Amino acid sequence: MHTAGAIGGGTLRTMSSTKLLSIVGPGRSGTTIIASVLGEIDGVCNVGELRWLWGRGILERRPCGCGLPPDECPVWSRVVGKVREEGSESPAEIVAAQGKLASRRQRLRVIRSATRGQVDWPALERVRAVTQRLIPAIVDVTDARVIVDSSKRAHDAAVLAGLDGVEHYVLHIVRDPCAVAFSWQRRDKTVHIGDRTRTMSTRRLLPSCQRWLENCLSAEVLRRHVPPERWMFLRYEDFATEPQAAVARLLAFLGEHGTPPFADERNIVLGVQHTVAGNPNRFRVGTVRITLDDEWNRRMPRRRRLAVRAITWPGLLRYHYPLTGGLVRRPGRPGHREDSRGLPATG
Ligand SMILES: [Zn+2]
User: Fold this and answer.
1) How much is the pTM?
2) pLDDT at residue 218 above 50?
3) What is the Å distance from ligand 1's center to 63 Cα?
4) Selected residue with higher pLDDT from 340 and 230
5) CB crowding 37-46: b at 16 or more within 10 Å, else e
6) What Cα–Cα distance (Å) separates residue 305 from each residue in 28, 144, 178, 237?
């Protein structure tokens, strides 16, 4: 939800009718643009990467999608005020607890506890307790029926899966790791917002591949803890090739009937959305064209591609990406089967 007019409806929806969508997938896989498309639909609130609210948002005062720091934003200032009315923990304490959950050793433990009730783990209990107050506060302030969180990491989605009184859904997005590695390596990648330019951060080839694999493996572990009808798999390439069809599938998955912001087959019109810190693409407003960004296929040296494919091959097999060569097979091509959730059928 993006308009000031939608703010402060003051309607306290019952939590049982709130749908919470976690978008999980490696960075640079289109998670931000897909969340932005959903955020334009009536009744849907795209909150950006919710995991950053307390650290980058409240403590570092990095701007919301509206350009204001969260403590001045008309949405987040009210949301955070409500959350803090009911609890005594400081933002620094919340960030410290989040940090304990995010360590490499602990992430799987968080994911495995996704659907368990009580857990004897103070850090997880603290993060869950704050999030349990945060979601109704967002609903109360925005009057949203569906909340979209593009935090991307499976263990953050697991925290949401463990909340009481919400319908939790997961959208798992994967993009060809060559495209992801190419995007992370580009030093010239910038986003223009008004008269300002924001530079995208960079990552070297090996860490990019490792993160891609880790993200995919974590998502597969999480998937075991999510009911099949609440899990949807989508390849970025399939979204970018036929965006309207992909969004229609996504809405059907969520049981929603709103109108997505397509001006035509490929162009969407985005307004200001109150997204907490994350990918600079969230600041884009106006007409945005969705295209399959396949520049890597022309510019990425062959030896680098082969290196990426050699490291990430288990994921390539799982998600039907080529083990050698270039672009992904197109959807619907013979040999590309999908199960009812859109997950490439294995075996
Ligand atoms: Zn805002």
Assistant:
1) 0.88
2) yes
3) 8
4) 230
5) bbbbbeebbb
6) 17, 43, 6, 17
Which residue has better confidence, 342 or 287? 287
Is CATH 1.10.10 what the domain over 4-176+227-290 is classified as, yes or no?
no
33: CA distance to ligand 1 center in Å?
17
* Residue 207: C-alpha distances to residues 38, 177, 184 (Å): 30, 12, 10
Q: How far apart (Å, rounded) are the C-alpha atoms in residues 216 and 153?
A: 9
Judge residue 26's burial from the number of C-beta atoms within 10 Å of its C-beta, 0-12 exposed, 13-18 middle, 19 or more buried: buried
Q: How far apart are the CA of 75 and the centre of ligand 1, in A?
A: 6
Which residues make up the environment of ion ligand 1, defined by Cβ < 5 Å? Answer: 64, 66, 73, 274
Determine the Cα–Cα distance for residues 37 and 260; give it in Å rounded to an integer: 7
Q: What is the per-residue pLDDT for 187? A: 62
Q: From ligand 1's centre to the CA of 50, what distance in Å?
A: 13
pLDDT digits (tens, 9 = 90+) for 37-50: 999 999 999 999 99
Average pLDDT over residues 6-20: 59
Cα 333 to ligand 1 centroid, rounded to whole Å:
43
